[in-house]
Amino acid sequence: MKSVVIERPNEIALAMREVPEPGPGELMIQVMASGICGTDLHIYRGEYMGRYPVIPGHEFSGLVAAVGNQITRFKMGDRVAIEPNIACDNCVNCLNNRQNFCLNWQAIGVTLPGGMEEYVIVPERAAFPIGDLPFEHGAFMEPLSCVVHGIERARIGLADHVAIFGAGPIGILMLQMARIQGAAHITVLEINPGRADLASEMGADRVVSNFEELRADTYDIVIDATGAIPVMNRSIDYVRMGGTVLLFGVPPSGKNLEMEGFKIFRKGLTVLSSFTSVRNSFQAVDLLQSGQIQVEPLISHRLPLQELPHALELIESRDPAVKKVIVQPNS
Ligand SMILES: [Zn+2]
Ligand SMILES: [Zn+2]
Question: Which among 171, 185, 133 is positioned nearest to 291, based on CA atoms?
């Protein structure tokens, strides 16, 4: 079968591998749709916790193609999406319901072979049924579950005014989730014209392209969905007194934020981050199935597996036409 392997940072190639067999408690998934996100780019560039060589792909869905022994929830042909983070359920963090900080953490597509190949082996507990949801939409289960976790932490209140920095796929999911949580007014800051247009289409009340158009000390919640340090630094200027800042975008490692400590103190701010998700996959599938979260407008490219190296460059180029890129290893 065809796989895409990141051999080491900055080195990616199409490879042929043996089709793997599921062991006890494992499923073989025929991958139908596999999303690319910023994390894949970080792994490719050697800036994330990847283990090399690695087959990337941690946002995917497909068909159960074979089942190992001791499988209780699935049969061949079932349609599923994959939660890539594998917690041990037997360390102090897991046993305190903090599975996202599992001391023996593994992740499909980061430390284990991922969805950028035709078939992949996953433990049964990583699989969630998606019913008749299109596979491309099922591939959003993972990023959406992370967004749900972040939104739960931020505790958006009824009629809150929310500002979201960045209208990439995550920013657009945040926008829709903030609305579901009861936000009265949502302002999106986005410099890329293609992404700004999408934010308007997806229901932002106001879309601005620079900080000068935002109102200082105003928003109940400011959410950063860029991970860009200079943008994150400005978040505390626009949140109201007593408000909340959610730093959600993944910043580059080894770089410091620069924020005035006194300002955080005087404004009585709650500054939060959010790391992956904790058992949010069922919620994510429900939100996708109910139609409350729309992902079709987020998909800009559907590509075969061999186009993955090109697709990573496409994402890196910040071309306004690029939104979510979905790879279809079995097309
Ligand atoms: Zn991702
Ligand atoms: Zn654990």
Answer: 133
Contact 74, 64 (CB under 8 A): yes
**How do residues 252-277 score in pLDDT, each as one tens digit?**
888 999 999 999 999 999 999 999 99
* The pLDDT of residue 288 is above 80: yes
Which pLDDT score, from 0 to 100, does residue 294 have? 98
Q: Which residues surround ligand 2, an ion (CB under 5 A)?
A: 87-88, 91, 94, 102
Give distance in angstroms: CA of 101 to centre of ligand 2.
Answer: 7
Over residues 35-80, the pLDDT tens digits come to 998 889 889 988 877 679 999 999 999 999 999 999 999 999 999 9
Choose among 198, 75, 83: nearest CA to 139: 83
pLDDT at 322: 86
Torsion sign, CA atoms 32, 38, 41, 47: negative
With beta carbons less than 8 A apart as the criterion, state whether 305 and 281 touch: no
d(CA 322, CA 328): 17
Q: Mark the residues whose beta carbon lies below 5 A from ion ligand 1.
A: 37, 39
Whole-structure pTM value: 0.96
Contact of 300 with 324, CB cutoff 8 Å? yes
Distance in Å, CA 3 to ligand 1 centroid: 19
For residue 180, count CB atoms less than 10 angstroms from its CB and return exposed for 0-12, middle for 13-18, buried for 19 or more: middle
Neighbours of 51 (CB within 10 A): 11
Q: How far is Cα 176 from Cα 163, in angstroms, rounded to an integer?
A: 13
Question: How many residues comprise the chain?
Answer: 331
pLDDT score recorded for residue 50: 66
* Dihedral class, residue 203 (left if φ above 0, else alpha if ψ from -120 to 50, else beta): left
CA of 85 to the centre of ligand 2 (A): 11
Segment 2-11 mean pLDDT:
94
List for the chain the helix, strand, coil content (%; round to 5).
Answer: 30, 30, 40
DSSP 151: H
